[in-house]
Amino acid sequence: MPFRPHIALALVAAVPVFAGTNSAIVVSASRLDALSTDVLDVASDVSVIDRECIEQSKAQSIPDLLAQEANVLFRSPNGKGDAGELAMRGFGENSGLRVLVVVDGQKMNRPDMGVFDWQQLPLSDIESIEVLRGGQSVLYGNHAVAGVVKITTRKGGAPAAEAYAATGSFGSSAFGARVSGGAGLFFGDAGAAFQRDEGYRENSLSWNKNANASVGADVGESDSIVLRASVGQSYSQYPGPLTYADYLEDPTQSSNEGDQFSETDSALATLLWEGEREWGSVQLNGGVSWRDIDWELSGTLGQNEQFGYSVSPKLNFGDDDRYVGTGLDLFCDTLDFEGDRDTSFNRAQLNRITAEPFVWAQLPVSATVTLSGGARYSYARTHGENVEYDKQNLQQFITNRWGIVVENPDYTTDPVAGSSFDENVEKQGWVGAFSVVWRPVESISLWGGYDMVYRYPALDEVISYQGYALADPFNEKLEAETGHNFEVGGKWQSNAWRSSATLFFLMMDDEIAYDSVEEQNTNIGSTRRVGADLELAYAKKHYGASALASFVRATFDGGANDGQWVPLVPDANTRLALWVEPLAWVRVTAAYAWVASRFQGGDYANDDRELPAYGRVALQADFSVGDRVTAYAKVENLLDKDYIDSAYGGGYYPGSGRAFFGGVKVEF
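Above: the chain's sequence. Below: its structure in token form.
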């Protein structure tokens, strides 16, 4: 059993990013997504980034936006936000595996340990993002251990068109256009985007091309259906890690000759049907995602094709305040791989099928107190098949040391024993959670909740097929990560002031990490995370300020590293921002972000060099030229501070130096 067989109750809820408006913010209050509610009525920590906030941010990518507006950490192999992993709630190495990313209801996490290609989601096509912090396993399933990033794309409606262009330091440029409209019952939109960035470091070129379109219809007064499709192509070079001495000498240099890269073709199609009925609501969400990734790293060539299929029917009985919901999440991930190394090549076919029914309920027990909860059962079947060949043994004739062609005594067409396999493994279990919300007055709410959490290991955590040998090439003993998440919080909003505070305690019992002694990924034992997420904001018509802070103590509990800090986890990261509109057509924003020191990846004993704390200053000016033209100028890392984004085993990845950006958008 990958997680303990408890049947309990579950909760999800939210807290907004107070981005300078006084209007009430609503969030998705149930997994059915057909209901929305006042943020004070739900019991979890969430940041809501709407379209207006996205426009004002002038962020270069989704990770940049999340760091800027939700204080989410991001670790990148090339010093920019096109590829890398999000980090929330005190997770270090492979933190992105513990954050679920959802786009229009389709789960986007790769089935392997590869990082998400953020280039394929241009900000110009995003309507809103909800960042739900903390365990959400009952409502969202696999990967939702540290939180969920739920992305909703823009859909058609009123006739509109726009085009934008931007440029910046290090060969940065971006162009895009979008049109939308509707007629009668139908609506739709289409967009295209291109972005290129040569990068702060040598050999860190990246570019992407993306096109998308959607069409929808309102059927009667109670039903709607939307179909959306997108295609894209992206390319990323990896400059590689530096030694500490090389970093001090020149953080812009590369450790390779520019021959390490990945190129990805991708496509996504989603379908959403929602209907309101007298007894409640119904929803059907389905999708197909595809990636074809070609890469070269350290002399190894690989071609990795991935498909993800999902269908999620849901029913909700009741109204916005009192309801019982049920649903079924069905997923199938497939991965076909071909690898070519100096001495061998291989072909692998992997897949995982999961079936996860869940139930959800909300019950007001008084005029001020509401209970919520549910449970989820999960079944997963993983299949792995790999065939590896030794190149030298496939040669029938070889040249001996005297230069004479002779018959190869080791000639065989048989696969390499041990590295080749064809096996299956099944896992199953229950999770649950429960919460209570107390709203004593209109402007204040207090809440508490408990969630069980879990994460299935990624395919290449369980299976060795990409040339990185594991002691057991198909490790059936590796169990899912499990844990218990406890949270309490409060929210207050009144006129121009808004604030929130959340305290959490997360006990992970079976966290997965690579064990260099056993030479495979293992359940390393218990870890403990205790911390807080805080937010305070003040906004008037022409000025405002905000402060966001996250604190966490993440340590090992028991074993050889008992009491030591989890690597790559800072005990604090904060963001402060101040904005003012001195004129009706000008808005100026100043921001400061600070990240505390942390130990480098793999340093479980906390013996190696710490990564020093760093802070960065940013300035931005926005201009409105009439009703249809906007422009901006922005500088990141104003003081040009050198800093280390992350490090693993003595290999250091520098962050970007000072960078200038500017752009213009025209609406038609």
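The chain has one domain: 26-152+186-516+524-667.
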